[in-house]
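Reopening: RNase H type-1 domain-containing protein still failing for me.
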Amino acid sequence: MDQVKGVCGVRHEPLVKYHAKVIQLAKEFGQIMFEHIPRTQNEEADHLSRLATTYYDELPQGVYVEIREAPAYEEAIAFPVLEGPED
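Support: Ran it again with your exact input. Result attached.
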């Protein structure tokens, strides 16, 4: 998270393009806040992090994995148009 806030740089070379994509996307929002949530307090993120080291045939029933053709930093992202009273 410190990398996104500009406190420190990205050291791991494969993450440089993902960092650049986050910075690019952050500019699309009027206001954005990043908050660190420890893994012990974020069960969903903990499960997602374990998927990277799990064989697909060992996934629990009801868990589906989408194989992407390109890294996320190369994909176009569509922003939904929200209509209604502004908060």
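The radius of gyration is 16 Å. If you still see a failure, please send the error message rather than a screenshot.
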